Amino acid sequence: MLKKRDLQDCQSLYDLMMHPDVFPFVRHKAYSQEEFLFVTKQTMEAEEHGEVIARTILDEWGNPIGTINLFDIEDQAGFLGTWLGKPYHGKGYNQLAKEAFFNELFFELEIERVFMRIRKVNVRSLKAAEKLPYAVLANETRKSLYDEINRKEEVYDLYEIPKDLYTLYYMRHEQEVHEDHQLKEA
């Protein structure tokens, strides 16, 4: 489902990123294949320095279909950035990728909170955030951060995913899966 960024995936990812329904919402835009290759290389180097955590999202057959990243890492927190190619919208990949990524961040890499800044005009992403039972609208509870990301004009909503809330969700979900498995065996 996820793997570390790899230069071999750049052609496929670039083609997916250029779709007009995807490109406006990509954080690190590249306007050519060469530029995308350069940006990917920079991202991989930044991960080596602990500045970012970057993964490629894969479909069931191991094909690259998007990216998921944690940017601006500071004090065991960072900002989530994710995009999927247009052919993969609405098929459940986003939630699966987020859960795999959050498992890695919270349970392996000692991240304590993930923030999502979502453009108020990005209805698809806002709806996806609202569906996450562990995401909290943080416009008021993290007012100083909300004001910082909207310094020039009010463009973004701010969501927070705290490790403890995600852990509670994860434990409940694992318990439900375990109970469902036991019922099927009986």
From TrEMBL:
What are the alphabetically sorted keywords of the record? Transferase
Q: Which Pfam families does the record associate with it?
A: Acetyltransf_3
Q: What Gene Ontology molecular function terms does this protein carry?
A: acyltransferase activity, transferring groups other than amino-acyl groups
Keyword Transferase set for record: yes
Q: Which domain of life is it from?
A: Bacteria
Q: Which organism is it from?
A: Priestia flexa
What name does this protein carry?
Answer: GNAT family N-acetyltransferase
Give the N-acetyltransferase domain ranges: 6-132
